[in-house]
């Protein structure tokens, strides 16, 4: 039996598949792993192209676009290997990329999920925005990474080459125990896309497992291939999903005051967008908060444990560190 299923979610993405699938096929050992493309109801010829060019790749066709969260939930329901890699369709993998991830989890039973070092496909000496060398969140729920804080991305000089425990692993290349994915509920379908991997990792941590970055594995991520940077749609999903994530994963007594503070901070972000002429993004924040007030009613149970108190990195106000103290690199925090 194979150990790993490398699962790529596709939606009308034949150009990305043409560019990135060859590296996955070339550098993923067939005796160890299967490659699966889950198609999110594409209307282009993605499936036909895969079946012709790479008949060894398994295709799971879905009837419609269920988003990142819903698509992967349906794909992993059809996976029976002990491990799964949730790999974005715009990721180039490297020789030997899979073995360090498998070996680490085999040697560390406490590891529920992990990620490789994620670098930029276009600027290959730099980390990539979505995950870099492992993620954390600050005390207000804002995500940041080893190697990336807000828009500042560090060059990779080997400064994060040691495996480390992190708060969240990037959904661009998320290596996870398949059964744990199911036991913790998988991705939250309501998120559709963005923040769903942080929400899942939070639940994995609540289950008693840990999350790691394993930089001995390295991949290159194009990024922003589905939703480009700072579109109103992306702004809406990021703000709405971040609020939902905090609401559902914090004890209610601690979540309420935090969410009030977030309302103040998000109001500041609203005016920043407005003053810089990005009216669509400003309005997206209002829509995000309105949607949050409706969607939060679906979550009726909150945990008793505040995991943020167990991570020193979560005691920071990353906005103050970055904009006021000018601490732009993770290693300078």
Q: Concise description?
A:
This protein is α/β, with parallel strands linked by helices and 333 residues long. Helix content is 37%, strand content 20%.
Provide the low-confidence segments as ranges.
Answer: none
Distance between the termini: 45 Å
What class do helices, strands and sheet pairing give?
A: alpha/beta
Q: Mean pLDDT across all residues, rounded?
A: 95
Shape: globular
Oligomer description: single chain
Radius of gyration: 19 Å
Largest sheet: 9 strands, mixed
* Helical residue percent band: 25-40%
Order of helices and strands: EHEHEHEEHEEEEEEEHHEHHHH
Beta content comes to 15-25%
Describe the structure.
This protein is of the alpha/beta class and 333 residues long. Helices cover 37% and strands 20% of the residues. The protein is built from 10 helices and 13 strands. Strands 1, 2, 3, 4, 5, 6, 11, 12 and 13 form a 9-stranded mixed β-sheet that branches. A hairpin with a 2-residue loop joins strand 9 and strand 10 (152-153). The longest helix is centred in the last third of the chain and has 24 residues, at 252-275. The chain is globular and about 55 Å long.
